[in-house]
Write a structure and sequence with these properties.
This protein is of the alpha+beta class. It has 2 domains: 31 residues, no CATH class; 69 residues. It is 35% helix and 28% strand. It has 3 helices and 8 strands; from the N terminus they run βββββαβααββ. Strand 4 and strand 5 form a beta hairpin. Helix 1 packs across helix 3.
């Protein structure tokens, strides 16, 4: 794929989801494809994790909270622990959460 005749981008594909890296207005961003339900995107998973981090929690407690919130909404696709961890990785990379001694909390 070529945009603005200057940059080439690749699609990164896995069995669980597919993301494209797209340049818009001089910035690069990840965008989901039409085959990915919005509730399985890293941004949406990360947003849900942030909403559950009202107080510092362990990874296990946070995962249990996430699973509990998924069970309340029966019409949304369920995510696996792998995607949950990718959501945590995403939040850590953008500086939204901090992790120390198996405890995760939101950055101010």
């Amino acid at each position: 794929m070529e945009l603005n005749n200057q940059f080439e981008y690749e699609a990164y594909v896995t069995k669980k989801f597919e993301l494209f890296i797209v340049q818009k207005g001089g910035k690069i961003m990840l965008t989901p494809t039409k085959n990915l339900h919005e509730d399985r995107t890293l941004i949406k998973v990360g947003a849900k994790i942030i909403s559950l981090l009202t107080s510092p929690k362990s990874v296990n407690a946070l995962w249990q909270s996430y699973v509990g919130s998924q069970e309340e909404l029966s019409n949304t696709p369920k995510i696996t622990f792998d995607i949950f961890i990718l959501g945590l990785d995403f939040l850590f990379m953008i500086g939204a959460i901090h992790h120390e001694d198996d405890i995760i909390w939101r950055n101010a």
